[in-house]
Design goal:
The structure holds two protein chains of two kinds. Chain A is mainly α. Chain A contains five helices and no strands. Chain B is mainly alpha-helical. Classes of the chains: A mainly alpha, B mainly alpha.
């Protein structure tokens, strides 16, 4: 790395960057249970579907970087839950916690001093750790933005959250 | 590629290329009419037009930080008001302003020394806005900001026109 701030610092801090838009944690907070499985009129997904997509996609990227034997789900069907509504009362919180555990794993990968982030993942098809981490960041931002938009459409978003 | 070259390349992709996470901002805005851009969705959500003005302001703000300006809100405000008359000309101008702001940011990133990416951006604002944010994190932040609002544009486009990929 030529700069004083290496990629690992940029990525690790970007995982927690929140100057100009809502974070994942804000986007999933205090959403009434009755609205978690509701699709706004004209849209193909509910908050639950977006949350699960965020969790599944992030988990896929973490496992891809960490587990040589990992096999990705089938795209796109297996990256989305089967129904708009959470299957049970605990599913929302469990999904949020799973997402947070994997986000912590992403941060640990980003700061692992033994790992050259610009190196290729040995079992990949040319992807680097850096590219995969940056994809995780941007994919999360894209769908967190959608989750906030869906909450607005459902009348369940507090400005400034 | 150097760090700034990679960041500039990511910016190009997110604005008008093929980003890894979904459609680019330009692809999402393609075909959106002035009337659709100005149409207020249910729930008081921002319009597509407002998102474009917001992105233009923050893109320009980050470019100015790279040129030495202290961190702050964009001069036109966080959420500029869209024009009362949603003319095709005004919408084209708003799109052109976003493109120009993007180009200026990419140029600023290209010109920014890699060795300074870890420097802290001067920020006189009190917390929570102010803080110890580096130039590198700021540039990554504007990329995530663009992805965040691109995701919202995909939703809004579907709502106001009944078209567009949302995934």
């Amino acid at each position: 790395m030529s700069g004083r701030q290496s990629w690992r610092e940029i990525v690790a801090s970007a995982l927690d960057w929140r100057e100009a838009h809502a974070s994942f944690d804000a986007a999933v907070a205090e959403l009434p249970v009755a609205l978690r499985g509701r699709r706004p009129e004209g849209l193909p997904y509910s908050p639950w579907e977006l949350l699960e997509h965020l969790r599944i996609a992030q988990h896929d990227l973490v496992e891809f970087m960490e587990n040589p034997a990992y096999e990705s789900p089938r795209w796109p069907d297996d990256y989305w839950p089967g129904t708009p509504v959470p299957p049970n009362a605990d599913a929302w919180d469990a999904s949020v916690e799973h997402y947070r555990r994997d986000r912590e794993r992403l941060q640990q990968i980003a700061i692992r001093s033994s790992l050259d982030l610009t190196s290729k993942i040995p079992w990949g098809n040319g992807q680097t750790y850096l590219r995969t981490l940056l994809l995780a960041l941007d994919h999360t931002a894209y769908h967190v933005g959608q989750l906030v938009a869906v909450r607005r459409l459902l009348g369940a978003w507090k400005e400034g959250a | 590629m150097t760090e700034t070259e990679i960041l500039a390349s990511e910016l190009e992709a997110a604005h008008s290329g093929e980003p890894w996470h979904g459609p680019s901002c330009s692809a999402l805005l393609a075909g959106v009419t002035a009337a659709e851009a100005a149409r207020r969705p249910p729930g008081g959500a921002h319009t597509i037009w407002e998102l474009v003005l917001h992105l233009t302001g923050w893109t320009g703000e980050v470019a100015q930080r790279l040129h030495g300006k202290s961190a702050g809100a964009p001069p036109q405000g966080d959420w500029p008001t869209q024009p009362r008359d949603a003319t095709d000309r005004a919408w084209a101008d708003a799109r052109a302003d976003l493109d120009a702001a993007h180009r200026a940011l990419v140029d600023a990133v290209h010109a920014f020394p890699d060795a300074r990416l870890g420097d802290i951006v001067p920020d006189p604002r009190p917390a929570p806005e102010g803080g110890s944010v580096t130039y590198g994190t700021t540039i990554r932040g504007v990329l995530q900001h663009l992805a965040y609002h691109s995701g919202q544009m995909a939703i809004l486009k579907r709502i106001v026109s009944g078209e567009g990929s949302t995934r």
